[in-house]
Amino acid sequence: MKRFLGFVKKEFLHIFRDFRTLIILFGIPTAQILIFGFVVSTDIKDAGVAFLDLSKDEISQKLSDKICSSGFFKRTEDLFNYNDINKILKRGKIKAVIIFEKNFGRNLISENKATLSIIADGSEPNTATLITNYITAIVADFNRELVNTSGAGAMLVQPEVRMFYNPGLKSHFMFVPGVITLILILICALMTSVTITREKEFGTMEVLLVSPLRPVQIILGKVMPYFLLSFINVILILLLSWFVFGLPVKGSLVLLLAESMLYILMSLSLGILISTVSSTMQQAIFISMIGMMLPTILLSGFIFPIENMPKIYDWVSSILPPRYFVVIIKNIMIKGTGFLYVWKETLILMVFTAVFIGLSVRNFKIRLE
What span, in angstroms and rounded, lies between the C-alpha atoms of 369 and 364? Predict the structure, then answer.
């Protein structure tokens, strides 16, 4: 019994001395609880809305103030004509546009009925549905207030809902861009991180060390096959999304492929960087899978809106490259925008790529020495 207890004690000491094991046992579950608890939410908070008030009367102002004072919506901009609606929705900062018809208050008083139009960004179906439901509920509460305060017959504000870019609220408009983003970063980062750590683990790195190849040439030689295969993967996914799900590319196909090539290069450079800090394939796989899969799913914004998360998760997601590629691919594929709408995200991905390549070459040189 003493031997058994001594063996158990030794195992406890071995675990407590291994920092990586403690992270797996306690750090990852804690992080997952915090992330899932705050990120996986169906609540709306400070969603950006714009108003097109063609009536500008007391009742329309009262209803717009009620919508904004609810805490669910934030008045981001006031529009002056219908031509501004498509332009402002393409920017991605506004989730819905609320339109008051002409003579809104007069129609409500004289005819006991007025129309309120809600135009939501359907490229994010879940968010669009939530927003329209919230606004409709606020309008219904406003109708009840009118019934209680009005001495005449019941006055009714009728909301009319329209969805831009995705009128049928098809879920694959959200999942296809997100799946492309997830697959590319996982496959590229995972495969490239494993391919170099395999050389270290199997002892074949010495062959590369004595070869006349420079570190940059070795890295490029490892990256090039996966770059070409991943690009073919993008084309296959786009073809499947078109023929199977009926999701065409509304914007420039050339621009989309160019942005995909940049994202693939960034993911491959991240995989090389992971390989330089990993000594075994298990470590590389663990860092690639756990370190990239959950943050990409939860914090990139393709399922759960980032603006609904606590501010700290907004900061965390800002250092995740998938967040920016999701914006790029949704804008080009679904909204049909051009480079002027995604140049900031493109520049950020280029910076990520340069940083990852620079760190990879630097660390790889140190290892070669």
Answer: 9
41 closest CA partner among 365, 336, 222, 299: 299
What's residue 217's pLDDT?
Answer: 67
Bridge partners (DSSP) listed for residue 51:
78, 98
pLDDT tens digits, one per residue of 289-312: 777 777 777 778 777 777 777 778
pLDDT at 152 exceeding the cut of 60: no
Question: Residue 320: what are its φ and ψ, rounded to 5°?
Answer: -105, 115
How many Cα atoms within 13 Å fall on the side-chain side of residue 256?
23
Give the model confidence (pLDDT) of 159-206 as tens digits.
Answer: 888 888 877 777 777 778 888 888 888 888 877 777 777 777 766 666
Residues of the chain with CATH 3.40.1710.10: 47-164
The pTM assigned to this predicted structure is 0.77
What pLDDT score does 14 carry?
A: 62
The whole-number pLDDT of residue 369 equals 45
pLDDT for 259 beyond 90: yes
Per CATH, the number for 47-164 is: 3.40.1710.10
Per the prediction, the chain carries an average pLDDT of 79
**Residue at 12: amino acid letter:** F
